[in-house]
Every structure is written in C-alpha cells, then in structure tokens.
Predict the structure.
Amino acid sequence: MKKVITYGTFDLLHYGHIRLLERAKALGDYLIVGVTSDEFDKARGKINVRESVYERMENVRKTGLADEIIIESYEGQKIDDIKKYDVDTFVLGSDWAGKFDYLKEYCEVVYLDRTEGISSTDLRDHTSLKLGLIGKSSNVDKVKHEAVYVDGLEALRPVSGNDAGEVDSLLSECDAVYVYSVPGKHYELVKKALNAGKHVLVESPVAETREECRELFALAKEKNLTLMEGLKTAYSTAFQRLLLLLKGGKIGRIVSVDAVCTSQKPAADEEMRWGSIADWGPTALLPVFSILGTDCREKRIVTWTEDAGSDKTAAEGDKAGQAKPAAEDEKHGQAKPVFDRYTKVDFRFDRAVASVQVGKGMKSEGELVISGTEGYAYVPAPWWKTDFFEIRYENTDENQRYFYQLEGEGIRYELVAFLQAVGGKASAVEIPENVSEAIAGIMEDYAEGRDVTKLAD
Ligand code: C2G
C-alpha cells in the first residue's frame, strides 16, 4: 500500500485545498492529512486563522478524501510522521517548492501546482471590517500599524477623542471603533459609538465607575454589538496558557499574586498623560482578578501624586489618572496636569492575597509572581509582554519553562480576537465582564478616595 501525506491549515476550506487533496490522493492508496493546530499556526505567524483546528479537521473529513487525519503541532513533526506512518510520498502545493526538499532523505517529495485565484486570506479579507481609531497618541499609531497584520481589518485614520465633529464623521464611515483616549472620556465615547451601532474595542479602563461599566456592557448586549476591553496581555498565548496551568493546580493552592508595572518616563503626548493607576493599573490588575476572582474582602491603596503636598485626598476633584488642573502653567497658560506617579494596592481575598505596584516616573522590577503551596510561577520583566514564564519548585530540577511566540507587543492578537468576537465568536473575548467591572471599580475607588492613603511629597 502506497502511503501519501500532506499538511495544511485548511482554514475556510476552498476548492484550492480540495484540488490539492484530490491530486495527492491520486498519487497513492492511502492519504494522511496533517491539519495544523491553532498554536502551531500562531507560532509560525499565521494569526488570522478563523476556524479552530477541530472545525478545520471536520471540513477535511467531510471531503472524504483523507484516510487518516492527524494534527500537526510542532516544528519538525513532518519527519517524525513520515517515519511513524511509513510514508512513501510527501505532497505540498508549489508555493512551498524547495522548502521541504530535506524530506527527500525519508521519502519521495512532490510539489503540485497551486490553484490560482483562491486563498484563505482572500476569503478572510472578503469580509473586511472598517475600524475607526479614536485617540491621538503613539499607542493608537501602534494599533494602526498592527492592524496591517490582521486579515479583514482596515484601520482608518485616527481622530482626536476631543473633537466631536471628527468623531461623528468617523462614526459615519466605520463599522467598529478602537478607543484609546483619556480614561475620563472613555465612557462617553464608547456610549456614543454603541448608540451609533458600532462595535467597540476600548483600551482599559472601559469606564471609571462600576455602574458606567455595567451600563455600557448592557447597552452593547441590547444592541447586539461587541464591546471588548483592550488589554493586550490578555491575548498573548503565554498569558493564556499560564492561567490554564494555574487553574489546573500546577502550583497547588494559590496564596498570592504580585504584579509590578512601571515606566520611567511619563507619556510625552499631553492628551495621554494618564496616571499610573489608570495607565498601568488595568494591566497589573488583570492577573489578580483573572486568577483570584473579583470578590476581594478588603483592600488598601497607597498613592503618591505630584501635588501630594496639598492636604487633598485623592478623591477631591482628582479622577483616577485623570489629568487635573494644578497650578496654572504660565508658559502655556494651560493647567499643568498632575497624576499619580506611584500607587500600590494590597488586596485580601477569602483564600489569598494580592498586591499590585504601578508607577510612571519611577522604576522597579516589572515582574509577575504567583505563589502557591507546591511552587510558584515567575514571569520576568516586562511580564505584560508575556512570551515566557517559568514554573518553579523547591526541587529546581523540576522547574519547567514555557515560551510562546509573541509578535510585536501582542496588539495584533487582540485585534484578531476582536474581529472574531464581532464575527460572533464570543469566546474570543478573553476578559470577562466582571473583570472589566472590577478594574473600573478600582479606578472609581481611587478617585473617590475609598481605602486610599496619600504619601507625602
Ligand atoms: N493550496 C493550493 N492552492 C491554493 C491554496 C492552497 O494548492 N489556492 C495548497 C497549499 O499549497 C498547501 C495546502 O493547499 O499545500 C494547504 O494550504 P494552507 O491551508 O494555506 O496551508 P499552508 O500554510 O500552506 O501549510 O505544515 C503546513 C504546511 O506547511 C502547509
């Protein structure tokens, strides 16, 4: 019996794929088809795959052409498979001509003409989504750049969240918006976009109070729109795998979660002078609420703001992270914004504790440590661009290291998830509403001075 093997992603299965399978099948008596796993595709840069590996395997099965279907999940697996299944012929499309000649050492290698005029990319691009960008900053520019890597997404020019006319005109041209303005404007901008029938991806925090957050998610549900919180860390494979391992008991009972996020220089662009708690807070809070839940029994917030000399608490007129006029700045005749340069939040949950330290204009080790009764998880700085973590034990011989590809800063994965959510795949949203609400709640408590103590200048 002559065995033939071929591999592919087979996303949105089309006649180009089917013709390849038919011709491969004709080369022997038994055809094995390797379908790439979601993770393997991500690791090799194919981040736009719409269907899961199981959907893609099922579509291949339905063709009736495969005698056996396997999952391809790691680099180099082709050699293992050729030996394991005693394959006579390896087949792939001509777009790969020459790339797999090294397999000639193990079996016959055949490249078949690729079918012109059809590709999964074209099919994905066919349903293009126009994404308006609201907010003018280097962060928004990054999103515009990253959108290029996302099939089926067209990022329009950024407009300022302060210019109502610009925002209105943008809303008339797009299908969805990405909002990254100042925290105090997110609620009104998100509400405006939802009322205009647009899907929304909003950089965290979604809003500055629990109530506003709840209201926005309810409005999105009522209008059958997607409202997704943007926090790129949540969309990195490494962070997602870390959470799964922890939930699976990898380090025993979790006793504490400790996250640190700092950056030396405050944001240059005036519109984006967010304070530490609004800028870094959501990122640092993400692992706390994702791992320990959102029912903290008590918390303590200690903060240092630039105008710490005044006897005001953080609450008086000082929205969380919001630039608040302090002394007139005689140079520009504008209010000089102040913000919290450093904030520490300590939490007590029923069965664990947590701490987050965030700072802008100060530095510390930006690591994430999750401590457990059998070991601990260590994510080195900058932990929020998660591509590596280690599970460490008393017996260091048992330590395990995990690495997952993270292209750019991970923004593109967030955009792919948003596109999938808009397309109806709600499971693509990695931040549950209760976590979004809990993050907004910390912004609210900070602004209201609840559990807040200010450091002297
Ligand atoms: N194909 C084709 N004609 C097209 C599109 C794809 O003949 N119009 C072929 C490809 O050459 C490949 C197979 O169909 O042999 C599957 O294509 P993809 O799903 O795009 O898979 P690919 O990323 O090419 O991965 O380890 C996986 C292999 O490297 C193939």
Residues 320 and 438 are 14 Å apart (CA to CA). The pocket of C2G is lined by residues 7-10, 16-17, 20, 36, 72, 92-93, 95-96, 114-115, 118-120 (CB under 6 Å). Residues 234-454 form a domain with the Dihydrodipicolinate Reductase; domain 2 fold (CATH 3.30.360.10).
